[in-house]
Each structure stands twice: as structure tokens, then as C-alpha cells.
Amino acid sequence: MQVAVKLSGVSRHFEEVRAVDEVDLEIAEGEFFAMLGPSGSGKTTCLRMIAGFDHPSSGEISLFGQSVVGVPPYRRNVNTVFQDYALFPHLDVAANVAYGLMIRGVDKATRMRQAEEALSLVRLSGYGKRKPSQLSGGQRQRVALARALVNKPRILLLDEPLGALDLKLREQMQEELKELQRSLGITFVFVTHDQGEALSMADRIAIFNLGKLVQTGTPTEIYHHPRNLFVADFVGSSNILPASLASKLNGRESPASLRPEAIRIVGEGGHPATVLGQSFLGATRRLTVEMDGTRLNVLLPNQVDTPPVGAEIRIAWDNESLHPLEEV
Ligand code: ATP
């Protein structure tokens, strides 16, 4: 599999701020790749450098094996979909989509045909004559996508493209984006601060914190084997056991993560714990318990009889569910 995007020792400093700090990263052709991290962790800066809107202070970026140092954005075979869509309000949808082709000198008949093809990819056939103001948020989002796809990029960069949509529409667009990526086979690089979105959509995820790439892996790897405290805390809903408690349980002098769904209530054996609270979540029920001074969340299927608040119970888990974490 060819490497579509490669970052080697890439840093970007804005005076004393290390927005991106020594990042090494490879994205394979055809991957749906998510960059995930809290606000200010350097994701957008990374994406802008891949697009060519910004440049590394040091390190190198190559696309399909070719260094892109000094190559302007329009010659990179890359297109970007921005969070605010950046549509031209005075142009109709077809003209918005065809804009990049017009700049490149493509004749009008070809432009209109290709714009219509791109609009049909995003299920907006027949909307060409509308103005952006006559569309819903989700439809504008699709126009922005069509405008990027019309240029037939090999890599599509998406910066929080669903951030402006409400939850239901967001979930629908997640499915659509995934399907579109699968059918086109284009490499998608997707920036988000929403861990659920990254886990559900991406083939692989890179987790950023404070400008550094902390961990790269498939959603399953990241979810089940978080490398350090930050990842365990940021992705999913792990219980974090302090080093003092974890060392009693597994003999290692480091904190550990334990997924709420890995904990079961047992009749005997296990570890004593007290039920502090419980909440009904629909298909599951969440108990909060205290064990050796540490609060833990326990996720139980709803059919299971749950002990009342204040009950003294015993809890257990399989040893492999307890993952030691690096502290950094
Ligand atoms: P968000 O999710 O909020 O977009 P992000 O992870 O994409 O965050 P970046 O936008 O890449 O983060 O910013 C990383 C850091 O670099 C932040 O501390 C930000 O303030 C700083 N930064 C980004 N662009 C500039 C700039 N042009 N000048 C100065 N500092 C900048």
C-alpha cells in the first residue's frame, strides 16, 4: 500500500508556542484517518501544513513519496473542506461547486457537467440553481464536499466538517461521509475533537496533545490499549486507577485503566466495593462504586439486577482488562 501522507519530524512554532512538536506520521492511500485531540492540540496546524496553507518550522512533509516543500496548495492534489464551508453566498450552488474548475480554465460545459456529477455524489442533484442561503446546514455541508470532490483530489482534508451540525444530522453525515469515502477510495484526513466521531468513522486515529502525537492506532487499539493517562482519559470512559491501587492489583508501579464494561459483580471472590450511585442509560445501567478509596464506573446490561445505593458488593474483572499506563 502506497503512503499518501508522510510527516517526518514536523514542528511548527509560533514564537514560543510549539503548536506542532516533532510529529512523525504515515497515512496510507485510501485510509480514513482521524486526527483527534482537545482544542489547541495542533490538529488544524498539521492539516494546514499538509494542505500547503502553512509550513513546518522544521521537518519534512511528503505526499505520495514526493516532498512538498515549497509546493503551493493548488499543486498538491489535495483539497480541504473547512468547518464553516466557506461557500460564496452570491454564487449559486453549481457555480460554487464549479469554482475551482473555472479558476483552472476548464470550459463552461465541462464545468457544469462535472459540478452536476459532484452534486449527485453528495445526493444534491437538482439543487444547482439554489443559493447557499436557501439550503439547510446539512445541504451546505454537502455542497462544500462536492466543491472539494469536483477537483478529483487524491487526498481530502476535512477540518471539523460536521462541527456546525446538530447531533442527529451529524450522525447521519458521519454515515454518509464514510460511505462516500469507501466508494471513492480517496484518502480522507479528518480533524475532530469528538472521540466518538473518530472511533466510529476512522480506520486509524492519531491522538494529539499539546502539539505532540501521543498515540496512533485503530479505534480498537486506541480504545482497548490506551498508551498513557491522557489517551485513557480522553478516549472513552475508562476508570483510571492510581499507581498506589494498581500496584496492589497487578504489582506494577504505574497507574492503570479499567473499562467500566470490563467490571462485573460477583457473589464471592473479587474485591469489596460500595455502591455510591446508579443511573439508567437505556440499554445499560451505570453504577458508581468505591473500591479502596477510588471511585469506579461499572457498566451493566439493563437486565441484570442492580444492587441499591449503599450496598456492599464484590467486583471482579479479567486481568487483561487492567492496562498499565505511562504517566506522560
Ligand atoms: P481546535 O480544535 O481548537 O481547532 P487544534 O488542535 O486544531 O485546535 P491548532 O489550531 O493547530 O489546534 O493550534 C495549536 C496551537 O497553536 C494553539 O495553542 C494555537 O493558539 C497556536 N496557533 C495556531 N495558529 C497560530 C498562529 N497563526 N499564530 C500563533 N499561534 C497559533
From TrEMBL:
The record's SUPFAM superfamilies line, in alphabetical order, gives: MOP-like, P-loop containing nucleoside triphosphate hydrolases
Q: In which organism is this protein found?
A: Flavimaribacter sediminis
Which keywords fit this entry according to its UniProt record?
ATP-binding, Nucleotide-binding, Transport
Kindly provide the name given to this protein in its UniProt entry.
ABC transporter ATP-binding protein
PROSITE patterns xref list? ABC_TRANSPORTER_1 (PS00211), ABC_TRANSPORTER_2 (PS50893)
Q: Name one GO molecular function term.
A: ATP binding
Q: Name one GO cellular component term.
A: ATP-binding cassette (ABC) transporter complex
Q: Provide the ABC transporter domain boundaries.
A: 5-235
Q: Which family does it belong to?
A: Belongs to the ABC transporter superfamily.
Superkingdom of source: Bacteria
